[in-house]
């Protein structure tokens, strides 16, 4: 039941990271602090479809 998810930067909307998660065990959207290559700093990245 693993599905691929994509992360989008909340500041510049760049999509640079992807991961997998089990949607049955974790139905909420993930929010992680990741390094954005376009902004050149750590920003909040939210899960999108």
Describe the secondary structure blueprint for this structure:
Blueprint: E1 2-9, E2 15-22, E3 31-36, E4 41-48
Antiparallel strand pairs: 1-2, 1-4, 3-4
Report on this model:
It is a single chain. The protein has 49 residues and is mainly β. The chain has one domain (2-48): Ribosomal protein L33 (Rubrerythrin, domain 2). It is 0% helix and 61% strand. It has no helices and four strands. The protein has a four-stranded antiparallel beta sheet, with no helix packed on it. The chain is elongated and about 35 Å long. It starts with a strand and ends with a strand.
Biggest sheet, strands in spatial order? 2-1-4-3
The CATH homologous superfamily is named Ribosomal protein L33
The low-confidence parts are none
For the record, the count of structural domains works out to 1
Q: Could you state the order of secondary-structure elements as H and E? A: EEEE
Q: How large a portion of the residues is in β-strands, by DSSP E? A: over 45%
CATH classification class = Mainly Beta
Radius of gyration, whole Å: 11 Å
State the helicity in percent bands. under 10%
Q: Write the CATH fold name.
A: Rubrerythrin, domain 2
What composes the largest sheet?
4 strands, antiparallel
Structural class, by secondary structure, is mainly beta
